[in-house]
Design brief:
With 249 residues, this protein is α/β, with parallel strands linked by helices. It has helices spanning 9-26, 41-49, 76-85, 105-118, 155-161, 174-178, 193-201, 234-243, and strands at residues 2-6, 31-34, 58-61, 63-65, 95-96, 124-127, 149-152, 168-171, 183-187, 219-224. The strands form 2 sheets. It has a 7-stranded parallel sheet, sandwiched between helices. A 3-stranded antiparallel sheet has the order 4-8-7. Bound molecules: 2-phosphoglycolic acid.
């Protein structure tokens, strides 16, 4: 995993946008996986303002809460429409978001995996990081080989999401996420510092689902200084960033 430490959340978003721009420079019709949460909002604002042509992009998303209609203010579909997809110029037929309102979630999970396969897999998957180390709704203890499936939220996650949040979700599995050709995880703020340390420098373990990024050949973790505060090798990563030969990255 490559850890990129930037001064603040704006710089994290700008660096993430650079990687998105590089993807579009080499591929006009990429497959992009989206994350819901506060962290990627600045990146999504930059994508909207970028002037890039998203009309040939196929979009997927990581996860969704169970029992919510697409228009529900708490639904992740609504979040992604409001904060990124509406106005981006991607036709509806290119957008496949997990539907947690369906009765048969196992069938939805299977259909989703099939749609990912039919699209040729994800080129770039955006990821956030839970304070408990989760990715998507793969809570601690999730199999590192898990596939898209219904999943119960951890109590920590429910506390972070606030009153009235459904307890169940449907989420891409860790094994599914690892199949994306590149991963772009963003984490900002001191509340994420311990989770960042655990995924970057701790052991590979299902107790810290984000540590699965250690297995991926093209995983980038972009953090601000506050989220990097507990890294033992922060100086090394700052040094790498200052000296990196960036052409073709
Ligand atoms: P956040 O959520 O971006 O709102 O912090 C991240 C997550 O829980 O995966």
């Amino acid at each position: 995993m490559e850890v990129i430490i930037r001064p603040d959340a704006d710089a994290v978003a700008a660096t993430a946008m650079d990687f998105v721009g590089r993807l579009y420079a080499r591929k006009a019709d990429p497959v992009v996986g989206l994350a819901t949460g506060k962290t990627p909002l600045k990146l999504y604002a930059l994508m909207r303002a970028s002037g890039l042509d998203f009309s040939r992009t196929r979009f997927f998303n990581l996860d969704e809460l169970v029992g919510l209609g697409a228009a529900d203010p708490k639904s992740f579909r609504r979040f992604l429409r409001d904060n990124l997809l509406d106005g981006l110029g991607a036709p509806d037929g290119n957008i496949r978001l997990l539907d947690g309102s369906l009765q048969d979630l196992e069938a939805e999970a299977e259909a989703y995996e099939a749609a990912l396969k039919a699209a040729g897999g994800i080129d770039l998957q955006v990821l956030g990081l839970g304070r408990n180390g989760h990715i998507g709704f793969n809570e601690p203890g999730s199999s590192l080989g898990s596939r898209t499936r219904p999943k119960t939220l951890d109590r920590d996650t429910l506390a972070d999401y606030g009153e009235g949040t459904p307890r169940f979700s449907i989420t891409m599995g860790i094994g599914t996420i690892l199949e994306a050709r590149s991963l772009l995880m963003l984490a900002t703020g001191e509340a994420k510092a311990e989770a960042v340390r655990r995924i970057a420098e701790g052991p590979l373990t299902s107790e810290t689902p984000g540590s699965a990024l250690q297995l991926h050949p093209r995983a980038r973790l972009i953090v601000d200084e506050a989220a990097a505060a507990r890294l033992a090798r922060g100086d090394y990563w700052r040094w790498v960033w200052q000296n990196k030969w960036r052409v073709g990255q």
